[in-house]
Amino acid sequence: MKIHANVWKNRSVLITGHTGFKGGWLTSWLHHLGANIHGYSLEPPTQLNLFDVAKIAKLLTSETRADLADLEQLKSTIQQSRPEIIFHLAAQPLVRESYRNPLGTLTSNILGTAHVLEAARTSDSIRAIIIVTTDKVYQNREHYHAYRETDALGGHDPYSASKAAAELVTASYRESFFNEESDHPIRVATVRAGNVIGGGDWAVDRLVPDCLRAFKAKKPVRLRFPHAIRPWQHVLEPLAGYLQLAEHLLSATGNQFARAWNFGPDAKGDATVSQVAEMLAQRWGDNAHIELEAIHTPLHETHLLKLDSTLAYTDLGWKPRWSLEKALEQVVIWHKAWHQDADMARITLSQISAYQEASLSLTPAAQP
Ligand SMILES: NC(=O)c1ccc[n+]([C@@H]2O[C@H](COP(=O)([O-])OP(=O)(O)OC[C@H]3O[C@@H](n4cnc5c(N)ncnc54)[C@H](O)[C@@H]3O)[C@@H](O)[C@H]2O)c1
């Protein structure tokens, strides 16, 4: 598994959602690789957030605080920053919030994706786009087999439906406007990762941040769906996949990679909500504990969700590197360091460096 530093050195990259959790980690990593990063997002999604805590603003060449709904602003940002590649992460990313605000979720996630693609269509700088969707795009049949990229799309809750629709919109733009015969072939891929964990996530209604808040307040954690199985992975795992995929899209044979990709954990990363909460409590120490009484909620969430990432293994040479235990250990180290007022830009970068050194060969290579 390789990331080529020279591919990224001085390359102009646009990240939507750079004020968010995954966007912050991606900005930090790409800055470390020498890219010129432009951000387009709303404000950070939570009061405490990775963007401020890890001083992500310092790593940006430019940033625009605006809504994806503003197509003219998006076009103008792209015209000015002239990115060669877009990582589209901006979205309303929470299932439960999508029940509270279905129209806002559909607008951000479907129309927002269409606006990114449309703005790219009118630019002459862009060569590749990675649209981040989710493992929840699959029509969930609650069966034990892991979903492959060719399985049917679906979506029970508004969030899942919005991301499945973003997949369809992307496929339509790829076929209609960005194919190899068009004047402006852009290689567009979608990426579907699992439940991502890592330092610097303070979202509500997500297991790890909910647990960390409760541990700190010395309160027991009550779980909504303790027996639900999810594919858990450290945030650096899918981001490594996105970077490798981007390098392939930018290469001479990039059109072969313009499709959907799963980047899930291996089978050992599939664990129940209660298992992950218990493992996290153990690592946190300080008498942290979990109350194993399910909270009754009328809102539907899937119980069983696994991803098959064979395609990324075979065609990209990507594979998961950090076990669930290691991922949780890194989360605890990050948050304990934050509680001790450490320099969180440095801690974030040190985790990226550790991941890269242990798992990836970082090869200086000629640009593809
Ligand atoms: N965190 C996970 O476990 C996970 C799993 C699978 C997929 N994803 C996907 O990864 C992406 C990033 O997720 P995250 O966890 O970092 O989310 P996050 O909430 O931390 O960040 C979301 C980002 O999107 C921006 N944003 C939201 N709505 C916007 C709008 N209408 N216009 C402009 N910017 C807007 C926010 O300002 C923020 O920068 C999302 O597309 C999400 O669906 C996340």
What does this structure look like?
The protein is built from 13 helices and 14 strands. The protein has 368 residues and is an alpha/beta fold. It has one domain: Rossmann fold (3-Layer(aba) Sandwich). The model has no long low-confidence stretch (mean pLDDT 92). Nicotinamide-adenine-dinucleotide binds at residues 17, 19-23, 41-43, 45, 67-68, 89-93, 108, 112, 132, 134, 193, 195-196, 203.
Total domain units? 1
For the termini, the CA-CA separation is 16 Å
Mean pLDDT: 92
Residue ranges: pLDDT <50 for 5 or more in a row?
A: none
Strand tally is 14
Strand-pairing-aware structural class: alpha/beta
Shape: globular
- What Rg is obtained from the alpha carbons, in whole angstroms? 19 Å
CATH top level assignment: Alpha Beta
Helix content: 40-55%
Number of helices: 13
Main pleated sheet: 7 strands, parallel
Strand-and-helix sequence, N→C?
Answer: EHEHEHEHEHHEHEEHEEHEEHEHHHE
CATH topology: Rossmann fold
Portion in beta strands:
15-25%
Features:
single chain, 368 residues, alpha/beta, Rossmann fold, seven-stranded parallel sheet, three-stranded mixed sheet, 15% strand, globular, binds nicotinamide-adenine-dinucleotide
